[in-house]
């Protein structure tokens, strides 16, 4: 799974990288070196303008952890941070979103963990590894988004009435990432952004063919400080090399 990631690029940078045409500057997401489930995250998606109907490429803040539109409540969101590519087009929670509500979730890289057994002088622990493209390019993680209407809020126009949530599509891990964890996020190449984001493109076979391993498998994997294990910790120091960590 992809349970934590790093996203530190500014909205101005993301607007340039993803050719964004609509972004509300009042909507902010702070840079994070420890993005966790239920956090607000930047997402790139395409929606028609309410007035003109023209399709716009938007940068929006979404809540990580998908809540299907038919859910009775939002409680399942934190459990639905990932959607498996093998079944994403079939599962009731994801199939409509996969057909019509796809997005990109920009990331610098992601974390995975490897259990380290106890020794005579130390307790067992989980060693985090930071996995990113070797060239430092942005990872456009493939995602889905959904709208959920909170029945407790009477006014449709109240922003609190609507939750917009997202999930990351994952696959079996390969290459360097596979030595750490059996799953990893899928990404979309820049040449395929337009097709992936187009809500009118509903051919699931074609859409699944657009998904690929991050950076075509050219990934840098290194052990980092165990401070990242706590969601309370955040900052660039979380990417410091871990001393005496086992090799990946």
TrEMBL record:
<dbReference type="Pfam" id="PF02586">
    <property type="entry name" value="SRAP"/>
</dbReference>
<keyword id="KW-0645">Protease</keyword>
<comment type="similarity">
    <text>Belongs to the SOS response-associated peptidase family.</text>
</comment>
<keyword id="KW-0456">Lyase</keyword>
<dbReference type="GO" id="GO:0106300">
    <property type="term" value="P:protein-DNA covalent cross-linking repair"/>
</dbReference>
<dbReference type="GO" id="GO:0008233">
    <property type="term" value="F:peptidase activity"/>
</dbReference>
<dbReference type="GO" id="GO:0003697">
    <property type="term" value="F:single-stranded DNA binding"/>
</dbReference>
<keyword id="KW-0227">DNA damage</keyword>
<keyword id="KW-0190">Covalent protein-DNA linkage</keyword>
<dbReference type="InterPro" id="IPR003738">
    <property type="entry name" value="SRAP"/>
</dbReference>
<keyword id="KW-0238">DNA-binding</keyword>
<dbReference type="GO" id="GO:0016829">
    <property type="term" value="F:lyase activity"/>
</dbReference>
<keyword id="KW-0378">Hydrolase</keyword>
<dbReference type="GO" id="GO:0006508">
    <property type="term" value="P:proteolysis"/>
</dbReference>
<dbReference type="InterPro" id="IPR036590">
    <property type="entry name" value="SRAP-like"/>
</dbReference>
<protein>
    <recommendedName>
        <fullName>Abasic site processing protein</fullName>
        <ecNumber>3.4.-.-</ecNumber>
    </recommendedName>
</protein>
